[in-house]
């Protein structure tokens, strides 16, 4: 046999072997004994290759150092930062890990660390208020279904079933600007909603919680305000809040990775421990509209362990289990994962899509943002009771004077004081503008820019004047005993603004 003929036969045999290896292996016939459950799915996710981004300004090395130093100091496990400027994403990066080494993996057993990825899905916590609920209220305003200075009892009669003259003074404006007089949250000392979620009980408690100050008198941030607004949206639209915002806010913007994750609408293998959902081995399934696939669970950043009901451990089957894919906020979790104040999960990319569409609408550029420009201008400027057109200018003047005469020597990347003028708390409809919670603005972005934070470690700040947004998503509460994120958020904003030459 010639050498050439021999080589041709070897090559033909190799081709046959390759095709045999690629052929589909037939599934074995079922047997009497069930096979062992498959291992947890890999946490690495495959995402489409994005278009190339513009080169980031060199100053972003200082921004990254802030984040990596915070991770090294064990203030947070990881983060995803996304910055948009002049209509483009100019910087996006994942840092650290989304699950710490030794913490439970999907199957509940201690597992190695999982790297943070840009497509990680985060529990947005209170960013739900501005990305979903407040936009839904503003749409009802555009449709003539609600007026801001109407009493809440007009839309939710049970809010004042006893005809209390003080409760009669609470308006929709006061709910949106956290000046209603409501306390921070509903009563959570008893174990309602832990063995089985109870949305009706959560709404009832929000409707009947006594006021702790006079309506319109002071700014006090309260989840109750937005639980009530979520209930009002459902009353006005005839739809559940999650279905309404999915159809009328997230879908029009193309936010395909953004949704509430109510366990009742989970599709695919999972198990329930009281009001909390957990991963379960099993094959993927085709999910009908209106549900969400549990195949997302490996990409979701875990938050903290469920510590509710420790005094009555038998009342919470999920006690001490790590929350992953179940909303961390206790009230939202007890209400079934959907509430006006918390419950939305998303990625840094999708939050950036929201922010860019908002900036485009405000600038008069083509945009899919689901509100008119005039409505959005109303939403993002001071609207608290007693607001006036001079307040933003006065606050900026006060900040400039304070920076010049008494800068923040403890942390030069932050302003000397938030709010700039003591006692003058500026809030838009949902959005924070200048209050004690405005540290994510940093010291460069002006008052008049706006944003919001989430307890889990998330934040969004938007500056129309420079056409910039900063999305910083973390699951900082996954690190036990971690300090508040407020300073890091502001420091990142300041260094970002400087990197952009603002």
TrEMBL record:
Residues 33-57 have a biased composition (Pro residues). Residues 28-57 are annotated as: Disordered. Keywords: Hydrolase, Signal. InterPro entries: Beta-lactam-related, Beta-lactam/transpept-like, Diverse_Enzym_Activities. Gene3D superfamilies: DD-peptidase/beta-lactamase superfamily (3.40.710.10). Residues 64-479 form the Beta-lactamase-related domain. It holds the Pfam family Beta-lactamase. Residues 1-23 form the signal peptide. One of its GO terms (molecular function) is hydrolase activity. This is Serine hydrolase. It comes from Mycolicibacterium agri (Mycobacterium agri). The lineage of its organism: Bacteria, Bacillati, Actinomycetota, Actinomycetes, Mycobacteriales.
């Amino acid at each position: 046999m010639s050498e050439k003929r021999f080589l041709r036969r070897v090559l033909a045999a190799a081709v046959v072997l390759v095709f045999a290896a690629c052929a589909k292996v037939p599934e074995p016939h079922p047997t009497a004994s069930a096979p062992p459950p498959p291992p947890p799915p890999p946490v690495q996710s495959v995402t489409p290759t994005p278009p190339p981004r513009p080169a980031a300004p060199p100053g972003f090395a200082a921004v990254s150092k802030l984040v990596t130093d915070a991770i090294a100091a064990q203030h947070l496990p990881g983060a995803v930062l996304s910055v948009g400027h002049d209509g483009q994403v100019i910087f996006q990066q994942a840092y650290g890990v989304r699950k710490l080494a030794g913490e439970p993996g999907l199957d509940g057993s201690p597992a190695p660390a999982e790297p943070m990825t840009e497509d990680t899905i985060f529990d947005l916590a209170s960013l739900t208020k501005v990305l979903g609920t407040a936009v839904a209220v503003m749409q009802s305003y555009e449709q003539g279904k609600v007026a801001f200075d109407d009493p809440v009892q007009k839309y939710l009669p049970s809010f004042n079933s006893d005809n209390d003259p003080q409760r009669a003074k609470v308006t929709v404006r006061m709910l949106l600007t956290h000046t209603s007089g409501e306390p921070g949250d509903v009563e959570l000392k008893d174990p309602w909603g832990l063995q089985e979620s109870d949305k009706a009980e959560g709404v009832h408690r929000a409707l009947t919680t006594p006021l702790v100050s006079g309506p319109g008198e002071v700014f006090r941030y309260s989840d109750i305000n937005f639980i009530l607004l979520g209930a009002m949206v459902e009353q006005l639209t005839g739809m559940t809040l999650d279905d309404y915002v999915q159809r009328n806010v997230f879908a029009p913007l193309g936010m395909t990775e953004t949704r509430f994750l109510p366990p009742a609408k989970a599709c695919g293998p999972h198990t329930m421990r009281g009001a909390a959902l957990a991963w379960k081995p099993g094959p993927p399934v085709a999910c009908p509209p209106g549900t969400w696939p549990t195949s997302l669970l490996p990409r979701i950043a875990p938050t903290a362990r469920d510590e509710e009901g420790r005094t009555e451990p038998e009342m919470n089957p999920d006690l001490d289990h790590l929350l992953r894919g179940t909303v961390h906020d206790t009230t939202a979790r007890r209400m079934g994962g959907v509430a006006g104040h918390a419950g939305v999960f998303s990625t840094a990319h999708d939050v950036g899509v929201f922010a860019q569409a908002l900036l485009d609408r405000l600038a008069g550029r083509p945009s899919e943002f689901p509100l008119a420009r005039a409505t959005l201008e109303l939403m993002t400027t001071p609207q608290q009771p007693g607001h006036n057109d001079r307040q933003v200018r006065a606050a900026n003047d006060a900040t400039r004077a304070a920076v010049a005469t008494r800068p923040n020597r403890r942390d030069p990347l932050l302003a000397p004081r938030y709010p700039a003028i003591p006692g003058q708390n500026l809030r838009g409809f949902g959005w924070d503008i200048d209050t004690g919670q405005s540290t994510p603005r940093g010291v460069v972005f002006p008052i008049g820019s706006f944003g919001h934070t989430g307890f889990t470690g998330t934040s969004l700040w938007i500056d129309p004047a420079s056409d910039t947004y900063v999305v910083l998503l973390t699951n900082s509460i996954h690190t036990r005993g971690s300090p508040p994120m407020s300073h890091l958020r502001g420091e990142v904003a300041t260094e970002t603004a400087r990197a952009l030459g603002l």
